[in-house]
Amino acid sequence: MRCKVYATLPVHKMGLMFMYDHFLSRNANEDFGVFTLDDIDTAFSAFVPVRYAQRSALVGHGAGITITPYAAGHMLGGALWKVHKETDDVVYAVNFNHRREKHLNGTVLESIKRPAVLITDASNARRLPPSKTRENDLIEAILRTVRQDGNVLIPIDPAGRVLELLLVLEERWSQKQLAAYQLVLLTKVAYNTLEFARSHLEWMGEHVGQYFDRERHNAFNTRHLKLCHSIDEFRALPPGPKVVLASFGSLDAGASRHIFVEWAPDPRNLIVFTDSLQPGSLSREVYRLSQLPPGARLPLRISLSQRLKLVGDELLEWQGKEMSRSQALVPIKSSTKYRVLREPKPVIESCKPNLDTQCTTMHSRVSHRGGRCYVLDGINQINNANVAIFDDESWYPNVLDFGETITSKTFEGYVQFGLQNDHRSGDNIEDKPGEFGHTSAPGRVYPDTQFMGLEESPTKILTEMHDVYLRAAVHICDFQGISDGHSIQTILTHLEPRRVILVRGNPSDTDFLRMQLQKSLSRAEIHAPKQSQMVECISENTTYRLELSQELLSHTYMRDVAGYQVGWVEGNVLISGEGGDPAATLIPAKSEMICEAQRTGLQPNTGASQTSTRETRTQDARVGLDFSREIDEQSTASELFLNELVVKRPAALVGSLKLSDSRLALAAAGCAAEFRGGALMCTGDKVCVRKTGNVMGAENLLLEGNLCDTFFSVRSTLYHHHQV
To answer: Is the pTM of this model over 0.70?
Structure first.
């Protein structure tokens, strides 16, 4: 992956922990080769951490695009994104939550107004709101189980929504003094997950930060929670009822799968699912069986795998194969590693700058000189340097860093002993070096580890099949932290997007949400593309970006509108592609009527011009603002006619046309106004202001009333507030 990935800092950290736990759990039960820990580090090294409401301008192919994250309220660091380009805003909002929780505030999606395109999901269109008693129901089910000497298993994901669940359980354990029942978090990265949560309080809700400022207590400094990182650590805990939060949430792998196989046949135990049950997963099958009567439940055929070290004959057989393979590779190998064992003469290599090879990792820079590796922290060799940083560096490969001399006889003796001792079984050579007549010393190498080029002992995968009868109780509790269907429709209607694109979700949920949005957003276009179907998200109008000169800006009247400086410039843009890049030139505009008048040589008489002007001004009292210019008394009739044509153009209204804003503007001008029947009545019902719209979605203000001073005063105030 070569592209940059923009994400908030908690998502980066928690995502890294999630992938670590996924790999370690999979690798402990199978020969997992989809990706490695190095692949995870490489992928997450491309992340660019950002904060909420931080604008990030893309470069390269994404020049001109700005992305901004906003709090989604779903999990720690979860964000919805606003992508801005030119005049359009594209909002990508899936899995948001408007409710306030123990460690998170609700989403800020409602603060974004009228985006050009809104991309959201339809998977929660028919989702019901969570029960107000969900926490009490969960605690009562847990207490009912542990008081009968039963155990509770809660399959969870290692990072994310587990933080909310931990705070709920920790709070109830403290309130009800339940220290007699063990509360356990069992994941491969349990310690790291809590450490990251403790250090990211500023990303949580305001109440969490205020509690820390007031009481100097971190909400994730748990008193009753015990951390375990493996099944062995879990089994070493004292006996007694336990409430265990273990990964994975799907029961497809991890510690939760092993514990489920052990606890499911006992009717005293309880299985709690707090997340969505994915189709095809073991958790979904468990929930399906729990809906059947106990006599109708068929056994679950579950496989359990574990990684074991090779011992005895298997270990000796593996060592013999590795030794044969290494001896077959010795004749073709000419590296220093194999020559130095037979050449006691020290090898001295000069360090020249052009022979240095450097590679970059996440944490340090590594420099390879003459086969020896140095970790350089802040010391980097300059590419065009005349001399090396360590110009007197010499390497003696037959002497260790501790001063011990390496001889080839030492290694040959160990190798011969390992090949001849094929009758021994059950013991690892590395575990009992004292039996060979040698004492353990720094730098001593044994044939089954470093000499063979291995870092760990050889292992194998042992798989067992189990028939599991589900007799334990199953409890469903919604802790996903996602808005319900009715709330989603209300929020989307409040946003008033011009276009909506529905993704994810099954066809029935998608059609249901589309029909609901078509009723509430009658002017918006609703798209529900199928898989691999493309939808254009750009504006229908062609937009050009022009750079205006300072001279033009200095002669342009600018007004403050909604926090922006807005002005009116009218002209014709001529684009010329000669000489390389296209260049745009702005020239003054001439209306078609002026061009027609100049072409025909029209010379209207003064009386007609004055009559037309007087009639136009009379009409302006009802429908528009008088834009006429003062004409010098010596002006000719033709100049007066042309000036009238130039000035007369439709008014341009900018800003949000809200009657509430218009009422504030009129009140500031000393004109009393009140709402009545969906309209704004001004100064004793003399003038009525209404908001109208057409089929294209454009909004206008309509003034009704008699032609009086109040009418013109209200019109002038509204024009001054909206018009450019």
So the answer is: no
